Inverse folding.
DNA sequence: GCGGCGGCTTGATCCAGGTCATGGCGATGG
DNA sequence: CCATCGCCATGACCTGGATCAAGCCGCCGC
């Protein structure tokens, strides 16, 4: 553990957008569809880049924000993986989600006006910080930005709703693996080989299972030829059967 | 069963806002905070009333919208109770929520651009229909309206997230009863006596329990003096102990 | 090198809540 | 007035996954 973990201090933001591989990062970002097809929304790219702050790096277990802090911004993950979680009244952790590069974090904080969860780096993480008041102002002028915000918020309702469903351990794990692989694939990574950035405990907590159950089901999936597991490396070997297992969850 | 149920046809909308008890309805609506304190947002009330359509009545089991229909509007419940639900790949119903007067329905449809669930009347229901394109246009001009939309969407993420948690049957039912009573109370109804508009089956499904479990837990709560149950009439007799049971869920 | 520790696996046992079966009861219709 | 049906309650039993327990393995600090 280093002192960053203990104090929860974030590294100093770097407000200067490094335009080196800007296009690459933005092409996979949640706002990419607004920013990049500049034909549609001339000027939106430039204005978004004006208000965005690049922040990082955060090291493992450092917080991008913490539960209870006043809400002021939403974040897009630029690199690394972010875990969101709450601690309930009994002191138990509840993992809410894992966020890949290009995905947004903090949308659930608009209503309560303070962050309702912690956002923690699972590895080395860089984020884009969008001041929410500034973004809302921009959204009022740029219909595409406003629409994208509405869509992102609405999509998160759908994701949370899906997670609230009543499923077996097999269904949950199959859906988890497929979902993660597909999200990696959407960001340009391999569609069938993935490295889990989170512990078995985090996976179990997220899926509302015991860690032992996660171990056992992964083992069985491997024995059945559905996947190959080596520590945190997973290869999907039979997407069809995994999709069949997950059909009640993933079929929207 | 009447033919409305079979065809799913909605009654003809009545686009003329009946200003009789307009103020009363709007004072408890999700947009009330934007509409009514007219000091803050002059003109917003009038403009919202321009674009709203009053629709209804819907009778029991009629659909305000159905899964798969193209998204075009969100709805505020004016009277009655609305249940949202999906049917999964295996044909099983999944109840997503119960919506009281003043609450919004359909926010989860913005992203997929089609309704991801059915919205059904549990009794006689009237709604306000907000064309979403019109509302978004208004939101771009009226910061208060935009903010309210962001807040409503964000709040729904929080509600769905809460529902996704891992809780016991006792915790779920205690939280369900308290939540419902509080929402009724916020709309001006009695805070401790409520009439459940939905069946035990719907409650069980919503809470991801078996109907038998709901019966048994309600019975036990009654034996323990927490509530009094008579069919669908429930009286909360010991809010403190109910809140204690529900502390892991409701403590945000 | 070695002890300690956190993450992971595996086996044995337990239990909350699901499932199955039965019956009551109120509403509706003939 | 009785038959039917949907909803609800209650008892008996079962099971998926939690919990408890033990051990392994890799990593870090000393």
């Amino acid at each position: 553990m280093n002192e960053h973990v203990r104090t929860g201090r974030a590294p100093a933001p770097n407000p200067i957008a490094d335009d080196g591989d800007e296009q690459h990062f933005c092409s996979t970002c949640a706002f990419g569809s607004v920013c990049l097809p500049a034909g549609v929304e001339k000027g939106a790219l430039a204005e978004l880049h004006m208000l965005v702050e690049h922040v990082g790096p955060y090291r493992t277990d450092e917080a991008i924000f913490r539960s209870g802090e006043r809400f002021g911004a939403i974040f897009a993950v630029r690199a690394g993986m972010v875990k969101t979680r709450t601690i309930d009244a009994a002191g138990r952790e509840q993992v809410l989600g894992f966020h890949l590069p290009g995905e947004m974090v903090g949308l659930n904080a608009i209503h309560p006006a303070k962050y309702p969860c912690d956002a923690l780096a699972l590895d080395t993480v860089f984020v884009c910080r969008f001041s929410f008041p500034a973004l809302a102002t921009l959204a009022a002028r740029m219909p595409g930005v406003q629409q994208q915000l509405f869509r992102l918020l609405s999509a998160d309702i759908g994701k949370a709703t899906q997670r609230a469903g009543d499923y077996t351990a097999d269904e949950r794990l199959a859906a988890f693996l497929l979902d993660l692989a597909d999200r990696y694939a959407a960001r340009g990574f391999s569609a069938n080989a993935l490295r889990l950035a989170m512990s078995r405990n985090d996976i179990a907590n997220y899926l509302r299972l015991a860690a032992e159950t996660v171990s056992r089901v992964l083992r069985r999936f491997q024995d059945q030829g559905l996947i190959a597991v080596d520590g945190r490396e997973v290869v999907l070997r039979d997407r069809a059967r995994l999709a069949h297992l997950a059909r009640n969850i993933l079929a929207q």
Q: What stands out?
A: The radius of gyration of chain A is 19 Å.
